[in-house]
Amino acid sequence: MSAEATNPEAHPEARPELRRRGRTRLDLRRLGRAALLGPTSRDRLPDAIGHVAEAHRAHHPDADLSVLRRAYLLAETSHRGQMRKSGEPYITHPLAVTLILAELGAETTTLTASLLHDTVEDTDVTLDQVREEFGDEVRFIVDGVTKVEKIDYGAAAEPETFRKMLVATGNDVRVMSIKLADRLHNMRTLGVMRPEKQARIAKVTRDVLIPLAERLGVQALKTELEDLVFAILHPEEYERTRALIAAHAGERDPLPAIAESVRTVLREAGITAEVQVRPRHFVSVHRIALKRGELRGSDFGRILVLVGENADCYAVLGELHTCFTPVVSEFKDFIATPKFNLYQSLHTAVATPQGHVAEVIVRTRQMHRVAEAGVVALGNPYVTASSATAGTPDTAADPYEERVDPTRPGWLSRLLDWQQSAPDPDTFWSVLRAELAQDREITVFRADGGTLGLPAGASCIDAAYAQHGAAAHGCIGARVNGRLTSLSSPLSDGDTVQLLLAQDASSGPAAEWLDHARTPAARIAISSWLEAHPDRAMATTTAARAPLSVIGARGGGANAVADLPNAPVRLAGCCTPVPPDAVAGFVVRGGAVTVHRIHCAAVAQMRAVGRTSVAVHWRATADCRVTLLAESFGRPHLLADLTEAIAREGVEVVSATVEPPVEQRVRHSYTLQLPDAAGLPALMRAMRNVPGVYDVSRA
Asked: H or E segment at 172?
């Protein structure tokens, strides 16, 4: 089944592999009417699933079809007497769904479960019967696609059905493959429904099923679903697009000539390749029309080049860019950097001497299978090495026990995590749609060498909750690519992020975090914490914005002595020297002597303007006054914790100033009277150990 063919019958070159096998292309849209229930003997396949068997054998020549015969007989017997709203026997629906998957190359277990996917929901067949007849794998998949009882869940039945289905998909992606094929056939036959019900189903398909098909890489289903939804929700735009395509059909199409030129170039270069013209589907043509305004003749399709090996893809690219004029802005390499949905190809565009611009896709035949069928093309991803060698599926393991799925991308893992915290079906349903609306992913590296998959636009807050879960409530900052940054900072693909967690178990997120959180897991966790701590949430949003100053009850004199009789001495505020710093003194206006650390920048300035230098030494007493700057991330009770840490060191606070927070970062300035200058390093360490403080320095 072509993912992009607007009119497959008009472009037989789009599926040359079917011609090579001598098979007639099936019109899947009419399968329901063609699947007649003929007589069946016990030693051969029923006539009604002959098309399924033929499509299955085309991808899996050695497949055992006896299990399909048994599954069909059980499904047909169970659904006998049931009719679809279109007036067809109900068995035509599971047959159509199974044929869709067989055309995509699904393996036997998926097809078996597909034939039975409605039996437990709509007939007297039980899951235990399915297990006895077909094993745990089929039983698990059938259970995954079975809807929850509306009588139990009421209005929440639909979101809870999707929640159940997604959880099952986390352990077996074949569950969602069947659901997507099921929705495709239902959308094809949606015309018998009332217009309002058509619109409701189309909206759910648009918001949930199409994004899921995109994420699982099943482009063949995604593109047709898009066209069907487009026709229902936007009938006027659909008709205009149909008229554009119909008008183009009567004009001379430049793409076949360009394709022939590409074949000639590759043949002369000695590259074995198959070159096809791929017509765009309706939604794709509509998007191009919105983007460019007036369509060119070459905008109604693309050139597809299929080769044998990865290296051949780049060889083709080199020849195309040598023999044609490349459009540099259109080049994308999804082979070196695959999309998060398994997709790999080279995309480029070239201009011909006649002035036509054609988009070209280059991929291997294996990449093409995956591009069309996504996870369906991977077969059974749960077969162990030993069972694969023996040619039998691994059904010994408990399918309900969570297992590592090599096809599970980061978005599905995130979804499975946050759905556990969704407090109610409405929240789950709305957040699910928002999550699926994110159409790009980035990968960031953790400080320990691991990776995190996040949606584009995610911030350090999202990374914190993705890595640490509820422990991220105490996150106080992050280092991105080695540089300290605020939690609101957005992340880019390839960044390395180190998250800084507070040691204080009572720390919690600020309400402002919700403005920068993009992932559902982060937003749900932050909202839940704020609801559970209303007083703390109020404190974070009503904190004083003006600088806060605290002045001590008494001050202390400087303990530096200048070799200038009767001259008042004061320590410079720019560098706050303390014993045993090397210092220099300078006479300033009024005859006072200002004392600076010898490396202070002001020393060079004093000398440059001709200030009189005076020798300075420290008194025998060890006490001193110093000003320290503390850089921290804002959180409740931070000022109290800092002053407590200072007091524990036996140091007196002369004055303290707290500047207004900027991007959750707060700057504190403390003038302190130390009983002994030797205790200054220990004091600075104690202040740095306060949760939320990331740096302490002398003024």
From this structure: none
The amino acid at residue 2 is S
Output the CA–CA distances (angstroms, integers) from residue 403 to 109, 397, 406, 412, in the order listed: 18, 9, 10, 14
The ranges of the chain with pLDDT < 70 are 1-48, 150-154, 250, 381-411, 414, 417-418, 420-423, 438-439, 502-507, 535-559, 573, 590, 619-623, 662-664, 699
122 is catalytic: yes
Q: Give the per-residue pLDDT at 556.
A: 33
Pick the catalytic residue from 54, 88, 122, 207. 122
3-state secondary structure (DSSP) of residue 496? strand
pLDDT at 410 (0 to 100): 63
What DSSP assignment string belongs to 9-36? GG-GGG-HHHHHHTPPPP-GGGHHHH--
Q: Tokens in use for 518?
A: 């993009």
Contact call for residues 487 and 633 (beta carbons, < 8 A): yes
Cβ contact 31:99 at 8 Å: yes
For residue 596, count other CB atoms closer than 10 A to its CB.
Answer: 23
Q: Which of 347, 269, 254 is nearest to 299 (CA)?
A: 254
Give the type of residue at 90: Y
HEC string of 315-354 equals HHHHHHHHHCEECHHHCEECCCCCCCCCCCCEEEEEECCC
Residue 267 burial (CB count, 10 A): 12
In this structure, are strands 665-674 and 624-633 parallel, antiparallel, or unpaired?
antiparallel
- Mapped onto helix, strand or coil, the DSSP state of residue 365 is helix
Strands 325-326 and 332-333: unpaired
Structure tokens at 86: 């279109």
The model carries a pTM of 0.65
Do the beta carbons of residue 213 and residue 221 sit within 8 Å? yes
Identify the three-state secondary structure at position 277: strand
DSSP three-state, residue 145 = helix
579: nearest Cα among 622, 628, 627, 614: 622
Tens of pLDDT along 384-406? 433 443 344 444 344 434 444 54
Cβ atoms of 312 and 271 closer than 8 Å: yes
What's the confidence (pLDDT) of residue 444?
85
Burial 561-575 (b: 16+ CB within 10 A, else e): bbebeeeebebbeeb
Has 435 been annotated as catalytic? no
Radius of gyration of the chain (CA): 35
Instruction: In whole angstroms, give the CA distance from residue 693 to residue 666.
Output: 9
**405: buried, middle or exposed (CB in 10 Å: 19+, 13-18, 0-12)?**
middle
Instruction: Write out the two tokens for 575.
Output: 């560098």
Question: Between helices 174-188 and 136-145, what is the axis angle to 10°?
Answer: 50
Q: What pLDDT was estimated at residue 545?
A: 42
Q: Rounded to an integer, what is the distance from CA 404 to the centroid of its chain? A: 19
CA gap 91, 98 in Å, rounded: 11
Instruction: Say which of 27, 47, 64, 121 is annotated catalytic.
Output: 121
Q: To which residue do tokens 């939604």 refer?
A: 283
SS3 assignment for 563-617: CCCCCCEEECCCCCCCCCCCEEEEECHHHCEEEEECCCHHHHHHHHCCCCEECEE
Q: Are 334 and 362 in contact (CB under 8 A)?
A: no
Angle at 33 between CA 29 and CA 34, to 5 degrees: 90
DSSP lists the bridge partners of residue 698 as 628
Specify the pLDDT at position 620: 58
Q: Convert 636-699 into a string of H (helix), E (strand) and C (coil).
A: CCHHHHHHHHHHHCCCEEEEEEECCCECCEEEEEEEEEECCHHHHHHHHHHHHCCCCEEEEEEC
